[in-house]
């Protein structure tokens, strides 16, 4: 997809830089921002860091961007997400374990950028509240600064995700060939196309929170077959059919 007049910052968990960087650094222009989160991925999983499985697109981004040699997170995904989206240490956000909620004493980057005229969009796993079955509560993405949302409250089956939601409305997956990584990517692209159709003069913030490669490591059958035998000794790959039963 070609995005016109886009200054893209690919931020792989480097949100703190965005909080601290004045707009003057970008020559007075408000940059478009794409923040991509890979769930539970080790740094050595990437080809550019020595991973066994080829990741050419991510390697290309690394070749033309910034690579970290030292980085820390909160050890688990939901407190890390809280700090990633707000800036403070996770205990200050209200997220200590699964029973806690993102509080109102912190602000999200979407709330800050939305107030500066950005279009704000999210796809993927939210995992910052425990009101999982009620998207009308004030804990979901649209109540924390995002204009659009397609995703789920928590992770799970890549072929049949738990409680999928568009904006504030639960939806039912009807596509028998549904695969969440593709669906999230397609919706992310769709939100950007819609943004340029309606708000081409405004910058955007897109947060893409993929399930992958979080457990249960589901993948399409053809992708698993391409790696067949590579991890026979440790048995890490779990095959699933390409379509739901």
Question: Would you mind describing this structure in some detail?
Answer:
28% of the residues are buried. The protein has 2 domains: 8-37 and 78-214, Alkaline Phosphatase, subunit A; 43-72, no CATH class. The two termini are 32 Å apart. Mean pLDDT is 83; it is low at 1-20. By secondary structure, it is α/β, with parallel strands linked by helices. The protein is 24% helix and 13% strand.
Q: Can you give keywords for this protein?
A:
single chain; alpha/beta; Alkaline Phosphatase, subunit A; 2 domains; 24% helix; globular; disordered N terminus
Strand runs, count: 7
CATH topology of the largest domain: Alkaline Phosphatase, subunit A
Low-confidence stretches: 1-20
Order of helices and strands: EHEHHHHEEEEHEH
Specify the CATH class of the largest domain.
Alpha Beta
Please tell me the total number of domains: 2
- Terminal CA distance: 32 Å
Overall residue-averaged pLDDT value: 83
Structural class: alpha/beta
Strand content: 5-15%
Characterize the main sheet: 7 strands, mixed
Share of helical residues: 10-25%
Rg = 18 Å
The appropriate CATH architecture of the largest domain is 3-Layer(aba) Sandwich
Name of the CATH homologous superfamily of the largest domain: Alkaline Phosphatase, subunit A
